[in-house]
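User: Teach me something about this protein's shape.
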Amino acid sequence: MIKILIISDTHHNHKILKNVLSMNTDCDYLIHLGDEPDDMSRHTEYLENKHFYYVYGLYHSRWSHENAVKQFQIDNIDFCISHTDACFKMLKSESNPKSKKTKSQNTESNRLLFYCFGHTHHRHFEQNNNIVYLNPGHLKNENDRDEIAGYVVIEFERMKKKATKRLKNSILCDEIKENTLSDKTPFVHVNFFDLYKNLLNTHKIIYESG
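Assistant: First, the predicted structure itself:
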């Protein structure tokens, strides 16, 4: 099982941040969606043996158009992260079924894509075919903008990588049979928690990797 902890908008609230990190030490990946990923510099013990991805908020001194969006892959699932939903809206427009461009893209690959953003401090989940739009909310205060603090944990079974098993034929030793393992993922769970790790909502995604 792979677990990905996704947080956003911590805004230097180290008490809440540490509380969330301490309750999710079993996660393999940590994603911070901005405002302020530098907060993790005071909690580096929770980054040990973890992969850490982050983007800066709009008003961070290191923010630029060049680093506003990051793309990466976790076990054959694609992720695109940014702090605001500006690129989210652009991607959503391109994923419109009426778009010829998107239709061909979906034909070429049916891999699952998570588009993750923060900034609004409000939780959001939406799925459009193989694209999932996700905002984990905030960790700024216990409550901000009428939204209780919270975060997301994505869980899925590790994919079987395509592999070839060679077996010698019992009659002809130079003849080889090949068995290829499938790389299907049966499910992905997207779990929304509040800052006390009470489950607020969960979404189950079933798909086949491309």
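Now, about its shape. The chain is about 15% helix and 35% strand. The radius of gyration is 20 Å. If you'd like, I can walk through any region in more detail.
User: That's plenty for now, thanks!
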